[in-house]
Amino acid sequence: MTTTFKESIQDALANPNLRGALGRFSEAYKISREKAYAGMDFEAVRDAVRDVKAYGASHLEELAEAFKAKAEAAGAKVYRASDPAEVKAYILALAKENGVRSIVKSKSMATEEIHLNKHLEAEGIEVYETDLGEWIIQLCHQTPSHMVMPAIHMTKEEVAEVFSTKVEEGQQPDIPKLVKFARGKLRNRFLGADMGISGANIAVAETGSLVLITNEGNARLVTTLPRIHVAVVGIEKLVATFQDVQPILQALPRNATSQLLTSYVSVITGQVPNTDGSPKQLHIILMDNKRSEMAADPKFRQALQCIRCASCLNVCPVFRLVGGHVFGKVYTGGIGTILTAWFDELKQSDDIQGLCIQCGACKDVCPGRIDIPELILELRRRLAVEKGMPLVQKAIFAVVNNRRLFHSLLRAASVAQKPFAKGGFIRHLPLFLSDLTDFRSLPAIAPRPFRDTFKEIVQPECKEKAAIYAGCLIDFSYPEMGESVVRVLNKAGIQVVFPEGQTCCGAPARYNGAYETAAGNAKDNIKALLEEDVTYVVSACPTCTVALKDDFIATFESLGMEDAIGDARKLAAKTLDFATLVKKLVDEGRLEFKDGQQAETVTYHDSCHLKRTLHAQQAPRDLLKKAGFTVTEMKECDICCGMAGSYSLKLPELSAPILERKLENIKDTGATSVAMDCPGCVMQIRGGLDKLGSGIKVEHTAVRLAKRLK
Amino acid sequence: MDNLFASFKERAEAVSAEVHRCGTAAEARDFVQGLLKEVGGTALWAPCAFLEAEGRPAFPGLSYDVTRERAAEAKVGISQMDWALADTGTLVVDATGVEGRLVSTLPQIHVALIGADRLLPDMASVLGRIKPSKAGYLSMITGPSRTADIERVLTIGVHGPERLVIVFVEGSAA
Ligand code: SF4
In this predicted complex, what is the ipTM? Predict the structure, then answer.
């Protein structure tokens, strides 16, 4: 990571306005968005959005031509531009030809993308943004920090200051007055402009229509008052039929601003009369700018399903700490990282892709059903291929890929914790080897790994067998979690085996773009786990479970290792996370817990992978209740704890405040203990609470349940 | 119909629109007259079916000659809508004629007249009825103009009207 990038993170973190405002907003957003979807099936809506947009993305050329024919038949002029230079040249020539001196614009990310204003202003044309947020940032020469709310990073005091210094002295930090002031000042700009420039939220091929979705009413003025209307439209806005606008109209306002519908939706088809009755010139520029290249990429095509609602920013635990400007570009947040990599170039995303903590919160709310975290991993992988991996990292992954060496290092580390923690080398190894104790205490390496203690567990002979996949953390730091899994399963009549050949699940490598290493790990594990004749493969680490169920397959697919996929699927079909398996056994009547008196009040932390990839949020809660615990919910129970593998090493400045917030929410419940299903989260949260000297107990659900067996 | 109206009213009021219902066209004229008197300033009424059926009332300050200059000056703009959607409190209108657009965008107050029989349940029902090939500029209006661009604080009335007064008229005129 570059030092300037690290500095920009520090600056953002030091800005209390930013953190306060975004933090409050993201909390309120979650609730208001849910309310906006009341009585509506979000999953069905987003299936429809995905279908409509996916069709568009795979028929770009066809739809663009159909749109052009229809819109031109209705009197518009349609210009297809392949790159930003063509768009700018077209608009400039048009302005010159028509003696345009002044332009009003309504909000358009496509024109931000190509820095249109700068180009026109350099030619002596006045350009006024009229969306309030866009106007504010235009006045202070900034870029939008958020796709929907461009000036969300500023306080009313800062806005008053900008208005006072750039427009007219003496503005007070009073929001209604500031809004009125903007209305008054921009009114004359609307009336005096020769050209209006807008974007479009949707372009309908079947009818040649543009759909504009706004709240302030500026787009209606931009498209009504000036005698020329230019719409700059990215070709990913194309949909096939007029009916296709419906799911987008349902999803966009609800997801973007928690509204049932925005104040205004305008559908413009061809030429309409000017205010003097003459026909208005309508120019529609269909801009490609790498979008067809993106559509041709099987991995990234889905990014064109984005409807620019910005909810992926609103729910991102990192975005709400640092805001948009750290991303340094026009498009911000998770999807912004992906768009920057394409619209600018891959290496521009080198630093910012590292901001993604891979918690999956964005994927859960995205109305386009885009797998944003997966696409960011793919960027990481391509960056690693393009630049090559740093030598040190390469050496580390070579070690991880050699199970015997890796494991003997870990054993050695348990004897002498420290020697390995020196220099850059060990810091990048799986986390428990690190000496980083700034904000949380790290666990020690257990004196004996689970693979050794396992052999001493006396198990009943059972007909049914399960293989346990421990994963590095349980194996080498938290053997008691593994032992608990064995005890619980034994009680249900399942004998547990430990396949010796198992090794690191490959997640650290994969999350760092080292797919070859991840594939090596995958192959070793598949071999080891399929060798056993078992009904289930069970893991008490959600990240490992996801690796076994999904990532092995995805990694092989990415690398074109078709031959390996069949076995990966076989393993995936057998694999279950601990809570889901145990819930199943309880439901089948094979397992009971001590009932009677209330054991204790616990609050539950949802681990990212368990909730959002494995969708197992209910099972652990049900099990804890069955085992006599009172479960009390914490605020934001499913927001990442900030651990995320090596993230907490690379970006401790972000990991720490994310953890801080989690700890506050835990403490606020008044519960005496907190349960969770991920050893990584246990490490992060236990360490954090230890540091605070809190007496709140932190336990894996397996450990809690094992103590309540009947 | 009463259910649709109740739902429309609830949704529209939730986004700060004002919703009224008049039993006859005459009542609607009286309502408009009362409103103009109350708010003062000048008013502009865009051509519409209501006026064709009922004639053009002469109220002080009210003009029918819609120009951009007058619209920019006017306190009140009056126009007629084509459909109302109960589930979102939305008005839908073919706004191809520029007069209707001027009186609903520039003045501070927009009075939207609509026939009580023009209520539809939802977006799907209107999308099946409107044809972009027949209307160059379709507008959907849900509440007055709004912004939350400064500190996420909702503020009504930025570039468009700060009041949206919706008048349902029973009978066939509107
Ligand atoms: S990626 Fe999804 S959530 Fe993010 S802006 Fe696009 S549509 Fe919205």
Answer: 0.97
